[in-house]
Amino acid sequence: MKIFDLRKQMGDFTLQIHRMELEPGVVHGLIGPNGSGKSTLSKLILGILTPDSGRIDYEGLTPRDLTMTSQKPYLLHDTVYQNLVYPLKVRGIRPDQEEADRLLSRCGLLEKKNQYARSLSSGEQQKLSFIRALIFRPSFILVDETLSNLDPDSTELFEEMIQERQREHPATWLIISHQLIHIRRLCGCVHFMEKGRLVAQGTPEEILLHPEHPSIRHFLASTEAFYLE
Q1: Could you tell me the sign of the dihedral formed by the alpha carbons of 162, 15, 20, 213, in that order?
Q2: Element (H, E) at 2
Q3: Kind and range of the H or E run holding 18
Q4: Residue 149 pLDDT
Q5: Which of 15, 37, 64, 152 makes an SS bond possible with 8, Cβ 3.0 to 4.6 Å?
Q6: Which of 55, 54, 59, 56 shows the shortest CA–CA distance to 24?
Q7: Class of domain 2-61+139-227
Q8: Is there a contact between 148 and 224 (Cβ–Cβ < 8 Å)?
Q9: 83 CB neighbour count, 10 Å cutoff
Q10: Using CA atoms, how far apart are residues 154 and 113, in angstroms rounded to an integer?
Q11: Secondary element (H or E) of residue 165
Q12: Domains of the chain: which residue ranges?
């Protein structure tokens, strides 16, 4: 996916991305201070917002190939199982019961498959949202703060599942997170935004451990950077 001269005005805020490339099959991290435009960019990529100018070259991807999981997921007024297989049904794909049960079991939700999804705890809802995003094997997965505020076991599970997915069926990931330790462990490329602009991009080592741009150094000093060593 390539982004060219993308511009979006929202009130007093302007997003302006001159050029950004998300290499296929790579786990990308998107970081930056609050209000830097990360969520706006994600909504433009997913087609939730329409840019004022510029373009996104999806390089053959269609909306059916993209998915998103967020910190506060939207769940249907239905069972856990029906929420999980919903992406398959809207794409005309017959659910594989064995695969669905495997994913539910992996997240400790198998015994709750017939439970009303919105009665799950917040952590369980995040797990359900995450495996729902994976079940149809999308080509592009946007993770918006899903890794934030999770207990250590859930965090480890999500990281393992991302790494397993990349070994078995590589996808392009864009992970938005303030938890920089996850970004360093998972990502092959990190993009830093500030005030609606893409300031820098590079490897985790270049951006998180040896940043040259002063804005990145300031951002790291105000976050959990001391956990990165």
Answers
A1: negative
A2: strand 2-10
A3: strand 13-21
A4: 63
A5: 15
A6: 59
A7: alpha beta
A8: no
A9: 24
A10: 18
A11: helix 152-168
A12: 2-61+139-227, 74-138
